[in-house]
Amino acid sequence: MTVAADSLQLATELGQLLLRKKWTITTAESCTGGGIGYWLTAVPGSSAYVDRGFITYSNKAKQQLLAVRSATLLQFGAVSEQTVREMAEGAAKAANANMAIAVSGIAGPDGGSVYKPVGTVCFGFCVNGNVASSHLVFAGDRQQVRQQAIDYALKQSIELLTALAN
């Protein structure tokens, strides 16, 4: 399958799970720039579970739209599990959604450090008020890092919702 077919298949599967639960989802995206929202809304009928999403590329946007605390950004940085947890919670609350996906990372080609190399992406998930987070370091160029982050976020969301159904 192509990248597009993989992403669309994941978004379709996630959409079916959301429809079954009669849930809504929102996104809070930084390094993926709306890519998760793009694939969620590429699915026909997605308006039944997608109302809005947030592209919060700057720290200012994260604070204004998602209520990320300045202390969190100062202490941990925009690319941290602490920040994406707050992004996910803030997005879920702002959108009145059952589920939120938040992503912040360093897609490259520059901007990395010893502690947070290029390819580092943090993920936050808020599911009915319960928050989980993780981070990975992806290999590849800017577009490859972004695409891997989008697909990982969709896969993790499917896994979280599937686990709730069991």
Q: What would you note in describing this structure?
A:
- The protein is an alpha/beta fold.
- It has a single domain (3-161), classed as Maf protein (Alpha-Beta Complex), CATH 3.90.950.
- Helices cover 48% and strands 18% of the residues.
- The protein is built from 6 helices and 5 strands, in the order αβαβαααβββα.
- The chain has helices at residues 3-21, 35-41, 59-66, 70-76, 81-95, 142-165; strands spanning 25-29, 54-55, 99-105, 120-127, 130-137.
- β4 and β5 form a beta hairpin.
- The protein starts with a helix and ends with a helix.
- The relative contact order is 0.18.
- The model has no long low-confidence stretch (mean pLDDT 96).
- It comes from Rheinheimera lutimaris.
- One of its GO terms (molecular function) is hydrolase activity.
- Pfam families: CinA.
